[in-house]
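Retry 2 of 3 after timeout on previous attempt. Resubmitting structure tokens to design endpoint.
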């Protein structure tokens, strides 16, 4: 990595820290409201009905590891899992989690085990509800189909890196009248999700799930930082174009 790229990277990190601190510790954040997405509202309603009626939930985290370009979507999936499990801790039918990555599966199993410890002082009868399916597209879908076909399910959430094969799951869920929330960072997966589900999240909407599922301040600040950086990039592009036009660059 050259010194120029490293300098830009350090400046970028410094901007994030400064802006994040300003939003977190000042009252500026109170001037902004997070727009509630209808799909997230429907999800929260469906989770509540599932717990009330003793129905199951299935959460699939995609097939991407945390250390590659799709890791951000996987982290969103993990945080979504954390919040859903916390909300359904009193349910007699614990959520089932599937993932196509060993890293995600281990982290999901840890969360399930922590919830079990909170509900019971004994872990001798611990049975994990997080399963590793497959790392490739077809093996991942082949492993997700059995748990998603459970007749006791009523809500299914797909958050992470999932390609166009997500259409197979959404089509099966639609036939069973299950509520499905697809949110993927794959463009092909988003196009298929939009065609197969009325509650699909498109584009960067996937990164707003934790903030809309929880009132935790850190998630709101995270969204504000994303918006600030977006406008900063737009402003830089416009300034560069202006200087190009006037011949200064």
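Retry 2 succeeded. Sequence:
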């Amino acid at each position: 990595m050259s010194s120029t790229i490293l300098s830009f990277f350090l400046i970028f990190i410094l901007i994030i820290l400064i802006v994040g601190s300003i939003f977190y510790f000042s009252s500026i954040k109170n001037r902004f409201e997070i727009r509630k997405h209808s799909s997230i509202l429907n999800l929260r309603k469906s989770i509540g009905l599932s717990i009330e009626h003793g129905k199951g939930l299935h959460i699939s985290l995609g097939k991407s590891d945390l250390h590659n370009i799709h890791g951000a979507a996987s982290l969103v999936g993990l945080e979504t899992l954390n919040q859903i499990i916390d909300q359904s801790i009193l349910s007699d039918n614990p959520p089932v989690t599937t993932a196509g990555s060993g890293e995600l599966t281990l982290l999901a199993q840890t969360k399930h085990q922590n919830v079990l410890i909170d509900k019971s002082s004994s872990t001798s009868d611990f049975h994990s509800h997080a399963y590793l399916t497959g790392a490739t597209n077809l093996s991942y879908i082949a492993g997700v189909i059995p748990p998603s076909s459970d007749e006791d399910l009523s809500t299914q959430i797909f958050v992470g890196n999932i390609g166009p094969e997500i259409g197979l799951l959404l089509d099966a869920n639609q036939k069973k009248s299950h509520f499905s929330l697809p949110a993927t960072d794959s463009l092909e997966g988003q196009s298929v999700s939009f065609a197969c589900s009325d509650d699909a999240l498109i584009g960067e909407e996937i990164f707003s799930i934790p903030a809309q599922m929880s009132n935790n301040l850190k998630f709101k600040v995270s969204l504000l930082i994303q918006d600030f950086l977006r406008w900063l990039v737009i402003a830089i592009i416009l300034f560069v174009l202006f200087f190009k036009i006037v011949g200064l660059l």
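Attempt log closed. The longest strand covers residues 153-161.
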